[in-house]
Write the structure tokens for this entry.
Amino acid sequence: MASILATSSYLLCIASLCVASYLLSLPNVHAEQSESTASFTITNDFIEINSTTEGTIQSLHIPKADLLFDVIGNTDQNGNLLTISIQRKPELQNLYHDLELHKGSHDAVFIYPSFTQAAYERGGFYDFYRNNCDSSCLTVPIPNKVNGFQSSSIFGAWALKLLNYSYVKDQDVDQNPDILKQYKRVIVLHNEYVTKKEFDAITSHPDVIFLYPNALYAEVQANYSTNTITLVNGHGYPDSTIKNGFGWQYDNSKYEYNVDCNNWNFYMAGNYTMLNCYPEFKILHSEQLIRSLQLQDPADLIDDLANWLRYPNDPSAVTELLSDYDVQGKHVPYWVSNSANLVINSEITKSDFANMIQYLNDQNLLN
């Protein structure tokens, strides 16, 4: 019998991320945004997610055989979906051994977006945005446990934790920004709402992967004596013209509503690695996406540079190179080869090369 939840959102509840399998509980759900609805279906053979965001309808149908983890629906006597659990598949232990980090590894850490979870809770920021309450809704409690949903990238957090990735929460970084310096790589999820301290700690780290778009979008201020956060700037507040509250030039929120991720691609933006879609469900069944998180260069930049140097007039080589910078074009001037060789030989930084490609694009010199 199919397990179906037809609501405006779904809520995932777990006490902590430190367990072998994770459970999400679905009662009392509410809309993440007024423009967004979602339904979740689980059968013995597939899971299906139907979502409508800002008028865009997207349906994801994923055979269970393709999933890297068991996603199990738990129903009441009438077949209504009450909870969902996610755990390792016994038959994939060798794969997990290949994909996972060693326990206690400092190679990578992900940041669970607890402030974003708080912002989307009932009586929070989105009730204010929808004019359902006054500015009192712009101060909300910091959650003391993970009650996540799609907007707080809960499936991504679960998948990484099941593979032994270390994690910290927003408040951990805000209270101790140096905590990120312990790790070689920082993986940012949908950390849409962060403090200025957290923003600075993330953007100053030398190796950051923004696995979800729309991160670092609005500034909040934390008050640990009252255990609350308050919206300060961004997301149309306090002025409707304000989008990114930090004025961050690498904001990639335009990809937030691409949830199928069929043509996912990592690209370089400045010194950061970013993904061109919202991988909340893709991460459940894309082995290559997970493997990319451990590559030295997830954007395949060096390989694409070398390929373009070999075949500078090959349209596919040009496309692959420019996609590493989220840029479209038909031609790269051959003199760029000098700088490409400098990048390969580590004589200039990838960020320097990215700035040059962006300049050529701005000057319409790639067509």
Remarks:
- Confidence is low (pLDDT under 50) at residues 1-15, 25-36.
